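Form 7-S
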Amino acid sequence: MGKVAVGAAVVCAATACAVAALIVRHRMRSSGRWGRAMAILKEFEEKCGTPIVKLRQVADAMTVEMHAGLASEGGSKLKMLISYVDNLPTGDENGVFYALDLGGTNFRVIRVQLGGREGRVVKQEFEELSIPPHLMTGSSHELFDYIAEKLAKFVETEGEGFHLSVGRQRELGFTFSFPVRQLSITSGTLIKWTKGFSIDDAVGEDVVAELTKAMERRGVDMRVSALVINMEWGNFRSSHLPITEYDQALDAESLNPGEQIFEKIISGMYLGDIVRRVLLKMAEEAAFFGDAVPTKLMVPFILRTPDVSAIHHDTSPDLRVVGNKLKDILGISNTSLKMRKVIVELCNIVATRGARLAAAGILGILKKQGRDTVRDGEKQRTVIALDGGLFEHYTKFSECLQSTLKELVGDEVSDSIVIEHANDGSGIGAALLAASHSQYLELEEA
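Output:
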């Protein structure tokens, strides 16, 4: 009996030792994995660094590229294309005007009732629509037909409060946020697609003519009277930009490798995927989410910037929003609070880099216009109008952008700079330019 008891005790002791050894090895392995994951995060943070000295270098490089782009065609990655807009709105414009704002995977159609100097913008309505992914790589005929179809349906909803003068045709301003070589106020040929579009038969074609033909096919009676473009700063590049291996991989796998480098590190289309790529490396090399790499984490662009914003803004004690996003989007459950905090920090790193670089780009524009300093003792009031979901909804991004710009220009100059969210700014602007270039202006003046 005693021998059996002793034997059992020895066996139990051996088992306990084995279990203890397994626990120790597990803890050591877990500790090693965590250390590797933190090393990946720390290395990424260091490479995303945007100290003021670097931001000033980026701003100076932006200014130089703007000068080069204006000096000669092809002299810079910044196209600096002439817009042919020669009549700016005066405030006296009257009537109903439409705008179409195409700048990415979504587009907006806008309707504005202008009431002259007294009424200004009397009433406005808009509808935001998504472009199906297959149309972004299909044919120009299909894309513009789809846009014209949605525009036609929007025009049909024109109701009370919008008054088109008798005998007048509706007029449309077209914001086309892609590189265009403009030929006149009503024509421009597409140089290349950006932002995920790749429609070969549209390159080199007059996009206004394409839209006009599509509207005719859809029975839309409207004149496209103004084309609005941008400076395409998304294609800016500089050796001073903090580019990481994740940015390089994203660029290499994109539809336009080597192009739109600035856009790929600051814009809402890409921030979410940068976060995903860092998480994927942490999962592959440090088993951050366990022994198996989550399958959905391998899907490009499955994590969108609005999701990153929701994670970044989570203030709940247990970061439950973070946990829910990981579970619902990536199929990752049972994450610890410690892991969730790391993911919030990763989002902060990506958003902060983007916001601070955007502020540096704005400084570059201010320098080009001579508005970055106080001249002759007089302050120049500058209003910067920013549109887009990233600035509007990602509060930590917009706050970081504004504080960084203030840091760059100093208190004295920043007091005279106002940053406004221009809701539907590009769309309303297009409608105003359509009004200021209306074919009926001469009749009104007569």
